Write the structure tokens for this entry.
Amino acid sequence: MKQVEFITYEEKQILLIDLSHIQPQEGISIIKEAKEQIIIQPYNSLLILTDVTQAHFDAALVQSLKDFTTQNKPFVYASAVVGIEGIKKVILDAVEKFSNRKFSTFDNRMNALNWLVNQ
């Protein structure tokens, strides 16, 4: 499975950004790839599912996420995140404050997908 790809769920296109089990440098590369996909989409059109299950973060990756979520804000209709636990809650809070966005969090991809298609 690709780490950035459009998937179809209940006849809706969802951009899956799979950061699960990654090291920080990998995450920065994945974010760059996701940005390239996002900026060619119509404004306010994207449903995005980001999975950070067991991902490893450092300061550079957190800053990349802050910049990424700020830059892609005009393109995103709804965004769900899976795998937020422990220190990742603090990271998500920082990203939300920095980007002036709100992310819905879920325990698993299925719940996130079901929420996204109902937005």
Observations:
- The longest helix spans residues 24-38.
- The chain has a mean pLDDT of 96.
- Strands lie at 4-9, 12-18, 46-51, 76-82, 104-106.
